[in-house]
Amino acid sequence: MEKLIITCAISGAEVTKEDNPYVPYTVEEMAIEAYNAYKAGASIIHLHVREDDGTPTQNVKRFDEAIIAIKELCPGVIIQPSTGGAVGMSNDERLQPIYLKPEMCTLDCGSVNFGGDEVFINSENDVIYFAEKIYEKGILPELECFGKMHVDQVLRLYKKGLIKDHLHFSFVLGIPGGMTGEERDFLFLKDSIPSNATYSVAGVGRFEFKLAELSIKHGGHVRVGLEDNIYISKGVKALGNKALVEEVVRIAKTYGREIASPNETRKILGLKV
Predict the structure, then answer these.
(1) pLDDT tens-digit profile, the chain (273 residues)
(2) What's the pTM?
(3) How many Cα atoms are found within 13 Å in the side-chain-facing hemisphere of 225?
(4) How far apart are CA 267 and CA 149, in angstroms?
(5) Between the CA of residue 263 and those of 42, 259, 267, 273, what are the distances in Å?
(6) DSSP sequence for 162-200
(7) Residues with Cβ < 8 Å from 268, sequence gap 6 or more?
């Protein structure tokens, strides 16, 4: 079976130190959390950035500082900035990190309710605009899908040539307003994508490790991190991102899945080595 790509989403835009004190805000904290995840087995760092007080930002200078700091500690790691940003940001604000020309970034493939009055808006025209700008910079988008309708939108735009090979999906499951994280949901999405596409699964909250195991078992890849889940087990907070990555490595060993290095990850995803 193909080696396992582990992505670690070290901070996100919403979770705070009040939720878990290991959530990084400063550039130094981001670099340390990324390093710990990298040493544990993560080959991709999914990156949101914050101001020192924890306020989410898409400021390109802040991304640049964080990326430089992470690369100094994690030679070869793939850094995947988020173009999701935070609810309420403009499209051009969200796109700021692509001007640093990372190897990868995320592309959110449809709108979703985040609970209460929060709506994460990604219209079809938004998705097309983001894709155009991302491909102009020679970046591989990770296609973030919160449900089957987002997968369908990707495939529709792929047929039109607006989304291009290589197709690498991220199934983000278990958020309020999105698709739940049951086994049936995972299988439905997995079986809905082309056979030559790759996929990773991000289970939110209690779904994190259950979905990680399913993806490992079926030959897919995994995302974990404090952005998605602050607990290592029920009621027990994770002592940083490292603990979450280590748990995935432990699960992978039970299925005989080896962990992909950054360069092995590049080969799997069709990136330049």
Answers:
(1) 999 999 999 999 999 999 999 999 999 999 999 999 999 999 999 999 999 999 999 999 999 999 999 999 999 999 999 999 888 899 999 999 999 999 999 999 999 998 888 899 999 999 999 999 999 999 999 999 999 999 999 999 999 999 999 999 999 999 988 999 999 999 999 999 999 999 999 999 999 999 999 999 999 999 999 999 999 999 999 999 999 999 999 999 999 999 999 999 999 999 999
(2) 0.98
(3) 33
(4) 29
(5) 12, 11, 6, 6
(6) SS-SS-EEEEEES-TTS----HHHHHHHHTTS-TT-EEE
(7) 2, 3, 5, 198, 260
The domain locations on the chain are 6-269
Asked if residues 189 and 145 have their Cβ atoms less than 8 Å apart, the reply is yes
To which residue do tokens 């040493």 refer? Answer: 39
The class of domain 6-269 in CATH terms is: alpha beta
Selection from 152, 222, 215, 230 nearest residue 183 by Cα: 215
